[in-house]
Amino acid sequence: MATLNIKDFPEGLYDLLKSRASRERRSVAQEVIRLLEAAVDVPEPLSILELRGLGKEHWQGIDAGRYVDEERSEWGS
Fold first, then answer.
1. What distance in Å separates the CA atoms of residue 17 and residue 27, rounded to the nearest whole number?
2. pLDDT band, very low/low/confident/very high, at 77 (cuts 50, 70, 90)
3. Which of 9, 15, 39, 37 is nearest to 28 (CA)?
4. 76: Cβ–Cβ under 8 A, 6 or more apart, which residues?
5. 12-36: per-residue pLDDT in tens?
6. Distance between CA atoms of 6 and 71, rounded to whole angstroms?
7. How far, in Å, CA of 59 to CA of 65, rounded?
8. Tens digits of residue pLDDT in 37-72
9. Which of 12, 15, 21, 27 has the highest Cβ tally under 10 A?
10. Do 56 and 63 touch, CB atoms closer than 8 A?
11. Where are the domains of the chain?
12. Which regions of the chain does DSSP assign to beta strands (E)?
């Protein structure tokens, strides 16, 4: 496993990191690894072309046309 040394690490930031690690019941090294994994594991943004069918599970058994008509009928109220 690789070793990472950080020079001139701000003392205040280290204190915050140490507190967070303690809250999460991790060592400082484990918390740094977890935070870095979360930071670099950002998924690629979806293309508009990949959104086809997104959310369809929420519309199972619902007549979309009727739903829209009902919503529109409430606008005038």
1. 10
2. low
3. 15
4. none
5. 999 999 999 999 999 999 999 999 9
6. 57
7. 11
8. 999 987 877 777 777 777 777 778 888 888 889 889
9. 21
10. no
11. 11-75
12. none
